[in-house]
Amino acid sequence: MRPARALIDLQALRHNYRLARELAGAKALAVVKADAYGHGAVRCALALEADADGFAVACIEEALELRAAGIKAPVLLLEGFFEASELSLIAEHDLWCVVHSLWQLEAIEQHPVHKPLNIWLKLDSGMHRVGLHPKDYHEAYQRLLASGKVARIVLMSHFSRADELDAATTEQQVAAFEAARQGLTAECSLRNSPGVLAWPNTPSDWVRPGIMLYGASPFEVEQAQAARLQPVMTLQSRIISVRELPVGEPVGYGARFTSTRPTRVGVVAMGYADGYPRHAPSGTPVVVAGKRTQLIGRVSMDMLCVDLTEVPEATVGSPVELWGKQVLASDVAQQAGTIPYQIFCNLRRVPLEYEGQ
Ligand SMILES: *Cc1c(COP(=O)(O)O)cnc(C)c1O
């Protein structure tokens, strides 16, 4: 069997969820959209269900997958519905629903709903992606109440720059949210992972941690609370071939690496078809047989090469960690010019294996 796999540490996932809730001093919806950022939504949700106040996903398809697996906890649809016809399923499966646009509000007013809905009313506090304009916010709230179709309303917004520790935007967004919700008495929710980790004095009855659950930092710089996270995924494989090259020999497609010393090259069963980023350059850290070394040459579809010159004990069959507890996914992502969110989501073909039930 091909040795490439992603090991998912559910114990670490629970640790990170509890840390989120402890730091926030609030209820926390575990964000498991996009198949739990590549970690397997059903398995992750089942592992968290005893602890979790609820879950959040991007669409009803993802929510129904959780319900079909027996998850009874609240599940929030972060973009609400895409078509009004989803409303009956939303009511039937007791899903919580974001309203981010006036067309959704009108759909709720017009659509027969046989059970009262739980609505999270989203304000555009400055990100300018989705969310109601502040001038429409109060009226939308009143219309939802007047529709008679709503059991509860939570007031929410989303940060655009909370991962930038010194940007003033987050405080401006909080101020915009405070102004817009004045006079409304309802619970509120603002913070994503960077909000939970770095913006402690933000009003929050509910927080919505995503990336931090999976143990990756949303920050480009070191941050004290983020250092307490435990990586959940270990992407691993093995050495499948070893060769010795003299000085001046190229390795891989396009000869992007040429040996400048006698070099021992190891080939790893892992490539961009598995989701390992093709843009990771020579020098990207990799751990072989417990020792830190580096990627050399271009990543190909099913294989990549590593420098074993300083790891003489490594041979065919030696274990390789591409990212995990020794090499952080955020470091690999940074090398490849992307973010850990994306390298997790890009994972494919690699079987997921779970430990720490
Ligand atoms: C994805 C998402 C989150 C989680 O964000 P992280 O940065 O991964 O913590 C929170 N809220 C909303 C609305 C989202 O879409």
From TrEMBL:
Keywords: Isomerase, Pyridoxal phosphate. This is Alanine racemase. InterPro entries: Ala_racemase, Ala_racemase/Decarboxylase_C, Ala_racemase_C, Ala_racemase_N, Ala_racemase_pyridoxalP-BS, PLP-binding_barrel. It catalyses: L-alanine = D-alanine. Pathway: Amino-acid biosynthesis; D-alanine biosynthesis; D-alanine from L-alanine: step 1/1. PROSITE patterns: ALANINE_RACEMASE. Its cofactor is pyridoxal 5'-phosphate. Catalyzes the interconversion of L-alanine and D-alanine. May also act on other amino acids. PANTHER family: ALANINE RACEMASE, ALANINE RACEMASE, CATABOLIC-RELATED. It holds the Pfam family Ala_racemase_N. One of its GO terms (biological process) is D-alanine biosynthetic process. GO terms for molecular function: alanine racemase activity; pyridoxal phosphate binding. Belongs to the alanine racemase family. HAMAP family: Ala_racemase (MF_01201). The modification N6-(pyridoxal phosphate)lysine is found at residue 33. The active site is at 33 (proton acceptor), 253 (proton acceptor). Its EC number is 5.1.1.1.
